[in-house]
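Troubleshooting entry. The earlier prediction with D-glutamic acid gave an output that would not parse, so I re-checked the input for stray whitespace and re-submitted. Clean input:
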Amino acid sequence: MDNRPIGIFDSGIGGTSIWREIKELLPNEDCIYLADSKNAPYGEQSKERILELSIKNVEHLLHKECKIVVVACNTATTNAIAYLRNHYSVPFIGIEPAIKPAALRSKSKIVGVLATKGTLSSSLFHSTSKNHAEGITILEQQGTGLVELIEAGKLQSAELYNLLEQYLSPMLKKGIDHLVLGCTHYPYLIPILRKILPDHVTIIDSGQAVARQTKNILDELDLRAHSHKKGTHQFYTNVDQKVLSTILTPLNVEASVSFLDF
Ligand code: DGL
């Protein structure tokens, strides 16, 4: 048993889509979440810079005595997790675009992936696509500009809707029946995506799978918190707290949101 917190980081608010699944599955666990919004988007930066930012975030979480680190960011996972696992002794959970379940379920054998430039250009993404999508056509689309609009709280804007329509229509014309969300910010787009995508196109994101994997590893390493306690949730952002608070309010969870210059 181990009551130390689970550490979670992302380039901004997107990883809260992973945190909310972790909180559901592991209600006794304390969580510390770092939103590195000041440095978003990671997806447009070099591999070296993404690694540097990931190390900075991990150091902060370890300073706060986290027992495990969830890299709630596809871009940081695909570019930095191998390094992090080699250099730190805590376990790391990562997230990658869920190509495998989409490939297994696709009837049209054409699957769309919407992700950041940093994820789509990583070698980990390429090896996953190659290994899990034999006989499947993967249509990749960079979500340029989407993270910036989500971070700016412009979820209801015409600009966001138009950008998504522009990104998705070529994939739809080519016959995708699954759309993989390869960025943890994108689950917040699902209500808009459902307006654009026909009903037969299934949206896949990896949030629940990451939460299950976190639980499995905590169980395996005997790191679960005491079952009688209720988990607490601390969020840190290095920009204005407003957008993070707006995302958390409808979830009705007791959480503290603070500014931290990290
Ligand atoms: N939320 C992140 C991801 O899953 C990063 C987006 C970005 O900062 O570009 O890739």
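This one parsed fine. The longest strand covers residues 110-115.
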